[in-house]
Amino acid sequence: MEENDVVETIEQAEAELVEESEIEESQDELSKANERIAELEAKLSDAENRILRNQADFENYKRRVRLDQESATTYRAQSLVNDLLPALDNFERALQVEAKDEHSKSILQGMDMVYRGIVEALKKEGVEAIESVGVQFDPHFHQAVMQVEEADAESNIVLEEFQKGYKLKDRVLRPAMVKVNQ
Amino acid sequence: MEENDVVETIEQAEAELVEESEIEESQDELSKANERIAELEAKLSDAENRILRNQADFENYKRRVRLDQESATTYRAQSLVNDLLPALDNFERALQVEAKDEHSKSILQGMDMVYRGIVEALKKEGVEAIESVGVQFDPHFHQAVMQVEEADAESNIVLEEFQKGYKLKDRVLRPAMVKVNQ
């Protein structure tokens, strides 16, 4: 080998080393970049799942709120109606007083109109008296406070009502207190 | 140059070419990877912003719902009360009938108890009559249907009430209809 050849060979070897380390470096960078890509993809996938979950939560919440609001609107009068029922009971009892003359008869007639006005206002809000006398006893609507045995009346029928029951739309505010035939 | 040397040189040149193209390839891959990283980072940042925006929207919605529900609860009786007011007016008029004897007096006393029971139930729900006679005229609460000039009465004072006004909590359901002194 000539001297020149030796120098050339050394230079080539050096160049190869440099190139090899360049390749190594860039492969190192590439593997780091790929790691970063994997990390970002995982984070993005998490974030996207979270967005979907949040949207589902939001939709569920909205639906629940809508149902709550509907229910609140439907039964909004319940509290006031419950408080009015005792006065309504008293009103009915007061109207059952017997009129002894024309004057008291006219007073009672006026009061009966007032009573019917109140019942009408309650009805508009969905309040209705529960049917009782003459219908089949139904534990959802009637509370039996007395039981009798009358052979000439139908079995399980309501014979008498002691206190009116009321419902607000489909909700029973209080059952009617009744006498039932066995 | 010997033949061997020539072969060696060609092999080296080929190897260098291969290495160079490897470097180019890996740099190409790296730049693609970096592009992908930039793209993913942008998407992740978008997704994170969206999560924050969604959370803020959700919180706003919850707050609005809470306020709506509070308001709905506060004024829940409004509809029924509005429907009851005409019956209440009639009730008051009916109670103003003069009792001619003990019998009618006792009927009216019973009815007065019923009336007070209704007023009590309404009060529990936040309904109250608006003060009028003897207080300063206030257009928020009073509707002047008559104006007079009485020198011996205070200026701008309510002298007489023709129809009761009512409010539900802080909300005027209807103003009192009154006579005012100029």
TrEMBL record, chains A, B:
<dbReference type="GO" id="GO:0051082">
    <property type="term" value="F:unfolded protein binding"/>
</dbReference>
<dbReference type="InterPro" id="IPR000740">
    <property type="entry name" value="GrpE"/>
</dbReference>
<keyword id="KW-0963">Cytoplasm</keyword>
<comment type="function">
    <text>Participates actively in the response to hyperosmotic and heat shock by preventing the aggregation of stress-denatured proteins, in association with DnaK and GrpE. It is the nucleotide exchange factor for DnaK and may function as a thermosensor. Unfolded proteins bind initially to DnaJ; upon interaction with the DnaJ-bound protein, DnaK hydrolyzes its bound ATP, resulting in the formation of a stable complex. GrpE releases ADP from DnaK; ATP binding to DnaK triggers the release of the substrate protein, thus completing the reaction cycle.</text>
</comment>
<dbReference type="GO" id="GO:0051087">
    <property type="term" value="F:protein-folding chaperone binding"/>
</dbReference>
<dbReference type="GO" id="GO:0006457">
    <property type="term" value="P:protein folding"/>
</dbReference>
<dbReference type="GO" id="GO:0042803">
    <property type="term" value="F:protein homodimerization activity"/>
</dbReference>
<dbReference type="InterPro" id="IPR013805">
    <property type="entry name" value="GrpE_CC"/>
</dbReference>
<keyword id="KW-0175">Coiled coil</keyword>
<keyword id="KW-0346">Stress response</keyword>
<comment type="subunit">
    <text>Homodimer.</text>
</comment>
<dbReference type="Pfam" id="PF01025">
    <property type="entry name" value="GrpE"/>
</dbReference>
<keyword id="KW-0143">Chaperone</keyword>
<dbReference type="GO" id="GO:0005737">
    <property type="term" value="C:cytoplasm"/>
</dbReference>
<protein>
    <recommendedName>
        <fullName>Protein GrpE</fullName>
    </recommendedName>
</protein>
<comment type="similarity">
    <text>Belongs to the GrpE family.</text>
</comment>
<dbReference type="InterPro" id="IPR009012">
    <property type="entry name" value="GrpE_head"/>
</dbReference>
<feature type="coiled-coil region">
    <location>
        <begin position="16"/>
        <end position="64"/>
    </location>
</feature>
<dbReference type="GO" id="GO:0000774">
    <property type="term" value="F:adenyl-nucleotide exchange factor activity"/>
</dbReference>
